């Protein structure tokens, strides 16, 4: 028997229970994976609270890394002993051993540790699609990225710097500002000390930026629109402060025919060829040293409630992982 985290109802961190379970044998198209590290992401909170519904009782977690123990019928691209990682459903990553679809797994380079892989897969692939596919940033551009001291934000700082992009980032305190600068953020705005709208306008000569990346949601959404140049794109990819309220499409018109999108990683990696191409680019950036993920916190799987409390309180810097 092994252990996993299970929820029987939606709610706060207290609904997560550490239980014994038998993962069983992989069916056709599946593998059994012994995990060495598990990624902690804000989307896990959405599933726990019910913002993203799933059948209950159920598991949590969408990211992990470990070794293949067994493969089911028809799985010919993986074998026992392979070092692999993943970022995607179904939920259930909060476990020592799990059975899951083989199609979601990719081999990781020998140079990449399990902890680094678990810390970077979901966040790194998110940065890849944000900067290279949702809006393909160009050298010399200025962009606005909220919450740059988080796991996604710090990777975005480094990736943008490698591309020659001027990153303007927002944070909530001086420590996070220094952290963002150390990871390549060009300009850092403490939104608790000054208006980020006014500062962005000042930094861009009143022109605004061509794209805003916003994972904060409710508390930053409207001001983010005011930071955009005409024909700019608002990329809303998270709701850390709450869901974005309904708004009239005329708000986009009066600000200069703006574009808006609400992307999800899972749509970008739905095709195996896209998943492999995105991972290849991510792994190349890591092996070249252009991305150096910061694992700011490590928690035992049994301490997952504490990890979620810290996550929701925005106490985390960089990536956080669970150790099964």
UniProtKB/TrEMBL annotation:
Q: In this protein, which residues make up the domain named Enoyl reductase (ER)?
A: 11-322
Enumerate the SUPFAM superfamilies for this protein.
GroES-like, NAD(P)-binding Rossmann-fold domains
Q: Does the keyword NADP apply?
A: yes
Query: Which domain of life does this protein belong to?
Result: Bacteria
Question: Cross-referenced InterPro entries, in alphabetical order?
Answer: ADH-like_C, ADH-like_N, ER, GroES-like_sf, NAD(P)-bd_dom_sf, QOR-like
Record carries keyword Membrane: no
What Pfam families does this protein map onto?
ADH_N, ADH_zinc_N
Mind listing the UniProt keywords for this protein, alphabetically? NADP, Oxidoreductase
Task: Name the chain's protein.
Answer: Quinone oxidoreductase
Please report the organism this UniProt entry assigns to the protein: Bowmanella denitrificans
């Amino acid at each position: 028997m092994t252990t996993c985290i299970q929820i029987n109802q939606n709610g706060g961190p207290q609904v997560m229970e550490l239980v014994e379970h038998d993962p069983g044998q992989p069916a056709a198209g599946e593998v059994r994976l012994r995990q060495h590290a598990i990624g902690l992401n804000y989307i896990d909170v959405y599933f726990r609270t019910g913002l993203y519904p799933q059948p209950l009782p159920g598991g949590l977690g969408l990211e992990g890394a470990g070794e293949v123990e067994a493969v089911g019928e028809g799985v010919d691209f993986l074998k026992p002993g392979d070092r692999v990682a993943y970022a995607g459903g179904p939920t259930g990553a909060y476990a020592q051993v799990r059975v899951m679809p083989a199609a979601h797994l990719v081999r990781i380079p020998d140079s990449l540790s399990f902890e680094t892989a678990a810390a970077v897969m979901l966040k790194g692939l998110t940065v890849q699609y944000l900067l290279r596919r949702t809006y393909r940033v160009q050298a010399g551009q200025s962009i606005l990225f909220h919450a740059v001291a988080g796991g996604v934000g710090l990777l975005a700082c480094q990736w943008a710097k490698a591309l020659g992009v001027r990153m303007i980032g927002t944070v909530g305190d001086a420590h996070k500002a220094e952290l963002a600068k150390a990871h390549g953020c060009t300009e850092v705005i403490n939104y608790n000390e000054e208006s980020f709208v006014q500062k962005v306008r000042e930094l861009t000569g009143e022109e605004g930026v061509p794209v805003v990346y916003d994972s904060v949601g409710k508390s930053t959404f409207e001001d983010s629109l005011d930071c955009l140049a005409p024909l700019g794109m608002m990329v809303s990819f998270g709701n850390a402060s709450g869901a974005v309220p309904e708004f009239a499409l005329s708000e986009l018109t009066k600000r200069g025919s703006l574009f808006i999108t609400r992307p999800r990683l899972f749509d970008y990696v739905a095709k195996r060829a896209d998943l492999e191409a995105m991972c290849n680019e991510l792994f190349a950036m890591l092996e070249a040293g252009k991305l150096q993920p910061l694992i700011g916190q490590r928690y035992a799987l049994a301490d997952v409630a504490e990890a979620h409390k810290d996550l929701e309180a925005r106490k985390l810097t960089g990536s956080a992982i669970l150790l099964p």
